[in-house]
Each structure stands twice: as structure tokens, then as C-alpha cells.
């Protein structure tokens, strides 16, 4: 598996995303793709989950509004797995945990 710009190469398949790929994280069952985002877009939700065949399973769900202008708490800049918990780091450097099965914020 490799990626460049907005294209992920997986098992001979080319998967295009709407924005540049910044990070890819894999687990036994899933591939998580972190994309860049456009500051002018109201809702970002820029993490995708694929299975190992390349089928999109979900896009991370929107957090409840915090009243922040443009809702930048839905724009993610990092991904990690810590102690078996799946986490994303948002634009404000807050750690947000998500369910790896459906993309809902925990």
C-alpha cells in the first residue's frame, strides 16, 4: 500500500480521495485515511475508513457543535491508536476518540 497526493494504491487498485492524503494508519481489519482539508468548508470530517479490499466503510461522523466559528473541531490533523483506543487530533489539538466500527465520536 502506497499513497501520493490524493491517491491510495491498494492491492493493485487506485482509490481517489477529494483531498490530499496526509496519513494512513492500518489495523488488523481496517485502513484509516486522514485527508487534508479546505479552511473554507463548513464541515470537514476528513477521516475515512476502508477495509483491506479498498471499500469505503465510513467517513468520521460530525461532532456536536461547540459554537466555534466554522466548526473546526471536525477538522482533523492527526491519527493514532493508544492502548487499543482509536483517536484523532483535531484542529485545536484536542484528542477525540472514535469508534473504529462506525466512525462515531465517543
How do the strands and helices of this protein lay out in sequence?
Layout: E1 2-4, E2 7-10, E3 13-16, E4 21-26, E5 31-35, E6 47-50, E7 56-59, E8 76-82, E9 85-90, E10 95-97
Antiparallel strand pairs: 1-2, 2-3, 4-5, 5-6, 6-7, 8-9, 9-10
The radius of gyration is 13 Å
Q: Name the helix and strand elements from N-terminus to C-terminus, one letter apiece.
A: EEEEEEEEEE
Distance between the termini: 29 Å
Principal-axes geometry comes out as globular
Structure classification: mainly beta
Taking pLDDT < 50 over at least 5 consecutive residues as the criterion, the unreliable ranges are none
Largest sheet: 4 strands, antiparallel
The total beta strand count reads 10
In what order do the strands lie side by side in the largest sheet? 4-5-6-7
Describe the structure.
The chain is an all-beta fold and 106 residues long. It has no helices and ten strands. A four-stranded antiparallel sheet has the order 4-5-6-7, with no helix packed on it. Strand 6 (47-50) and strand 7 form a beta hairpin. The model has no long low-confidence stretch (mean pLDDT 88).
Provide a quick synopsis of the model:
The chain is mostly beta strands and 106 residues long. It has no helices and ten strands. The model has no long low-confidence stretch (mean pLDDT 88).
Features:
106 residues; mainly beta; 4-stranded antiparallel sheet; 3-stranded antiparallel sheet; 43% strand
Amino acid at each position: 500500500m502506497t499513497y501520493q497526493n490524493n491517491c491510495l494504491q491498494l492491492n493493485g487498485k487506485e482509490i481517489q480521495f477529494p483531498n490530499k492524503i496526509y496519513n494512513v494508519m492500518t489495523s488488523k481489519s481496517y485502513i484509516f485515511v486522514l485527508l487534508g482539508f479546505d479552511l473554507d468548508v463548513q464541515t470537514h470530517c476528513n477521516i475515512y475508513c476502508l477495509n483491506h479490499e479498498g471499500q469505503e466503510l465510513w467517513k468520521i461522523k460530525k461532532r456536536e457543535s461547540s459554537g466555534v466559528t466554522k466548526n473546526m473541531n471536525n477538522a482533523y490533523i492527526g491519527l493514532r491508536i493508544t492502548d487499543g483506543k482509536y483517536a484523532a487530533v483535531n484542529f485545536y489539538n484536542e484528542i477525540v476518540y472514535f469508534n473504529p466500527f462506525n466512525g462515531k465520536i465517543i
